[in-house]
């Protein structure tokens, strides 16, 4: 009953000490870190830039990100974006990633890294520090 990948599954948990609390079952394959990192994007069609804009990375993982964009309505599933933003780590590491739009919900856009992208060492350290 907990297999549905689209629904949030909330369960009630009872600790051995007697305390009760609610929990959410996480069904993602990898760790996802909540952030608020400003940056910019370029909308690419056939390798050519057709638009630019500002965005904020809201969460990030080794497989993709959730972005907040004020003009997400101009995008569609399958579009390619080139992102540029800085991590809030000690080195203020600059990340430049090519991503593919996987879902759009209001101002939020879910993206996954393009197959040509490799995992940055800076991103790996950032996610697991």
Would you kindly provide a written description of the structure presented here, covering whatever features stand out?
This protein is mostly beta strands. The protein contains one helix and eight strands; from the N terminus they run E-E-E-E-E-E-E-E-H. Strands 3-4-5-8-7-6 form a six-stranded antiparallel beta barrel. Strands 1-2 form a two-stranded antiparallel sheet. A hairpin with a 2-residue loop joins strand 4 and strand 5 (64-68). The two termini are 34 Å apart.
Order of helices and strands: EEEEEEEEH
Please state how the strands of the largest beta sheet are arranged side by side: 3-4-5-8-7-6
Structural class by helix and strand composition: mainly beta
The percent of residues in helical segments reads under 10%
Topology of this structure?
Elements: E1 9-14, E2 20-25, E3 32-45, E4 48-61, E5 64-68, E6 80-86, E7 94-105, E8 108-113, H1 121-127
